[in-house]
Structure formats: C-alpha cells, structure tokens
Please model this.
Amino acid sequence: MNVAAILSSLIFLTSLILIFTEKVNRMIVGFAGAALMVGAGKMLGFFSEADALQAVDFNTLGLLLGMMILVALLEPTGFFQYLAVWAGKLSKGHPVRLLVLLGTVTTVVSMFLDNVTTIVLIAPVTILICEILGTNPTPFLLAEALLSNTGGVATLVGDPPNIIIGSSAGLTFMDFLVYSLPIVAIVWLTALMLLRFLFRKELAVRPRKMKAVMRLNPSEAFDDSKTAWKVLIMLGIAILLFFLAHFLNISPAFVALSAAGAALLWVRPEIKKTLAHIEWSVLIFFAALFVMVGGLEKAGVLEMLVRLLEHATTVPPVLFGVVIIWVVAGLSAIVDNIPITIAMVPVIQGLGAAGMNIDPLWWALAFGAGFGGNGTIIGSTANIVVATLSEKTRTPITAKLWNRRGLPVMLVTCVVATILYVLAFPLLSK
Model:
C-alpha cells in the first residue's frame, strides 16, 4: 500500500470514528475530512480540486434539494397533518400496527421511487403522527430507513446500484421482479419481525393521546388545501417522470429540481421561509462524503479491496457469490454503495470473460449493496436523512443507537439473503 492510500484511508477512518463517537457534529467532521483529503491529494498528487468536484454526485444532491423544496412547500398547508391523523386513526393508535402500516407503505414506495425521495416524503408524516399520539418516533423512523433500503433491492428502479447492475448485466425490470422480489419479500418480513423484537419495549408503551386521535377529523387538518393541491400535482408529475426517467434519458435530479422550480413559480411562497426548511447540513455532509470517497478511489484504495476479492475466484461459484454478498455488504455499511457497485462491475465482467457464469453474481452484488447499507448511520443516503430529520424530535437517532438496532438488522438480513441465494442459485444461474 502506497503513501497516498495510507493517508487517504487514515483521513477517512478518522472521520468515520468521529462520526460514530458523535463528539463532533457530522457535518463539521465531513467538511474537515473533505478539506484534508483534497489537501493531502494535492500534496501527494493523487487528488485535486477538479477531482473533488467530479467526485460529488450532483444527481443525488439535486434530487435531495428538489424533494426538500417540495416538502417545504407542503409543510405549511397541513397536508402532513392530514396524513398523520389518517394513519393514526387507521392504526387505531396501536404502535405495532402503526409500525407495520408505515413500514409497508415505505417499502412499497421505495420499490418504485429512490430511497431518498421515499424518506423525505414519509418521515415528516411519521414525526407528526408520533407528536399527535404522544409516542416516541424513533422505532418508526429507524424502521422506515431500514425497510426502504430493503425494499429498494426488489426492483430495477428502487436503488441506484440496481440501475447500474441492470445496465451492466442487461437485466430488465421483469428480471428483478422474477429473481429479486421473492427473495427481498422474505428478507423484508424477517427485518420487520426483527424490528418488532428490537423495539419491543418502546412499542409496548400505549400512546398517551390515542383516544383524542380517534376523535380527530383528518380533513380538518388542512390549513391551505389550494396550495397543497398545487404542490401535490407537481409531485405527482415528478413521480410519473421518475418512472419514465430511464426511457426519456433524464436524471432524477432534473425531474426533482424541475418539479420544485415549477411548484415555486405556481405557489409563489415567501422564499426565505421555504429555504429555512431545507436541511442544508445534509447536503453539505453528502458533498463532503462524496469528496472523501472520491479521494479513496483516486488513491487506489477501493481498487485494492476489489483485487483482494479477485483472489477468491478459486472457490466454487456459489461460495464466491456468498463472498461478494458479505464483502460488498461490509463495504456498503461504511462507504456509499454506488462507488462500491461501480468498482465491482468490471471485476464481475472480467470473471465472465474468463469463462465463469456470472449471472448469479449480479444478484449477489445487488443483495450485498442493498442490505449492507443498513449497517451504519452513514451506510445509505436514507439513513443520514432520517437521522437528520430525527434531530427535530426529542429523541434524535444517534450513531450508537443505529449500531444497536440497525447493525443487527443488516447482519440478520444478510444471513437470510445468503441462505436464499444459495437455495436459489440454480435458478439465478439461468
């Protein structure tokens, strides 16, 4: 390992430790880590300012910003209060029913929309439901992030790594429904039952205001239905275009920002109030994280990890698939799964050129990248967004809490996915 690889790894690992220990705000840690990465890169000649800009995934940032603007426009209208009262009444205020209801909605939505959009839309509703019921929102918010990551693995458009894998392997939307969806359904059910067990104490507490919620009328929650409908129309158009983005050759960021821009023109809000609702710290943290991962890539750290994986090609194909699931899952827990997926694609293609049947390996990559993101608070975009939104509540989600709840879910779901992968290997090999 050369000096560039050692120094970049040291910067990244130190940043991770500071984030996990929560001694310093994660945005500050990310900002400082990104600055150190660029400084070290310029000093050693492996990473420049131009490289740093290129490393930032503006599609993710644009998608986040656009959806945050739409949510910020909806907040004052009472729309989220309407959904909160409706969900509270439907679940009759029962915590376990509410967990299943919100978890199912989150999973289904995440199968067709990216995880960030799903969480940005559903998390504010969840916080309001819990405020109305007088119950702790932590189990529900954490479950939504974990289940959105899980559900996204089921379809071609549910998770960015799936889009990359589908494009590289020539897999269609129907392929994911046939081969991935059944496995994900069992993994999802396992995750939901495990969450029910992990949060058994919190879910055993009856909401203080359950009777009051049952007397509420959801339609009375609206403060400005006219504005709400305007924003919802633009949101509906955005969701439709998310489905068609691949065929129209437009990015999700373009869709989200265009919808947000159109909504701003139509609604004409007080712009300072709208901008005040944007979670700028999330956007800055993500940009910094992309820069640090970009530095690792340029220093050759990710390539070295992939080369280590190549040494496992002597094992039987089914076991090699298991290795991919666990290595990719472990890496995806601490590094964004998009660069991991991108780095793994040429490795799998190379194995195919050498004569190995790589059809099942693509599914191993999808399972590892998708389920591994549940392992830590920075394992996926959805995790960070949920953690940031939870800071508005009295019980924010911390890295330590995530390690106690999210990590077991990641490990158990990966075990279940591994067993199902081995059992389904003959079918996945066709």
DSSP finds 22 helices and no strands in the chain. The two ends are 39 Å apart (CA to CA). The CA atoms of residues 107 and 305 lie 32 Å apart. Residues 3-55+79-221+279-428 form one domain.
